[in-house]
Specification:
227 residues; alpha/beta; Rossmann fold; six-stranded mixed β-sheet; 7 helices; 34% helix; 30% strand
């Protein structure tokens, strides 16, 4: 059985912009092992956001095949993509993406609500918040939390369904350096404790320095893959 959690073969993505075809990915092939910590870097327009969207099951490639956790997802319907995304991928975004009127606990429960998971939902959400050091903030709403605390809520939400991968898009971009270090420490701790595969999409070489592998994209192709 393969230990690759991500397998992409000759992935392309073409967007139609008016009369012009924009080739965002031009045949990217990559494999990421279970438990790897990887950064995907590249200048604006390199294709890294497009690749992130395909890896995270937010979009499908125009051609090529993509397997997530040994399941062929490149040909799935939108509904099927949504289900596998909720089960297999945890997202951490620069902008936190929390629901402002909901408590930290309710925000962390969201992935389980979407999947129809009813068993121990509150208990699991509370444990996820405790895992990121926020057991005393479960009743707080986002506007009652610091930026670093909001990002930790987002991490708890990402990990509550025990996903195969956590995909972090500039996760420290809106944080001061101390909060950013704390967030990186939590994410890397998840990798050490649970062997969670971490993929960072970033411009920041300081984040890349935390990872054991850096994939550089340019013009829709892998320019360099440093292990």
């Amino acid at each position: 059985m393969s230990d690759l959690v991500i397998e992409g073969d000759k992935l392309t993505k073409v967007y139609r912009m008016g009369e012009i075809d924009v080739h965002a990915l031009r045949g990217v092939s990559l494999g990421i092992q279970r438990g790897e910590v990887v950064s995907i870097m590249g200048p604006s327009g390199s294709g890294k956001s497009t690749l992130m969207n395909i890896i995270g099951c937010l979009d499908r490639p125009t051609s090529g095949t993509y397997l997530l956790n040994q399941e062929l997802v490149s040909d799935l319907s939108d509904d099927q993509l949504a289900k596998i995304r909720n089960r297999e991928v945890g997202f951490v975004f620069q902008t936190f993406n929390l629901l402002g009127r909901q408590t930290a606990l309710a925000n962390v429960e969201l992935p389980m609500r979407y999947s129809g998971e009813a068993n121990n939902r509150r208990k699991r959400a509370t444990e996820a918040l405790a895992a990121v050091g926020l057991e005393d903030r479960v009743r707080h709403r986002p506007n009652e939390l610091s930026g670093g605390e909001q990002q930790r809520v987002a991490i708890a939400r990402a990990l509550v369904n025990n996903p195969a991968i956590i995909l972090a898009d500039e996760p420290t971009g809106n944080l001061d350096s101390k909060s950013g270090e704390e967030v990186m420490k939590i994410l890397l701790g998840l990798n050490e404790k649970h062997n969670t595969t971490l993929i960072f999409v970033t411009h920041d070489p300081e984040i890349a320095a935390f990872t054991k592998r850096v994939i550089h994209l340019r013009d829709g192709l892998i320019e360099n893959d440093e292990h």
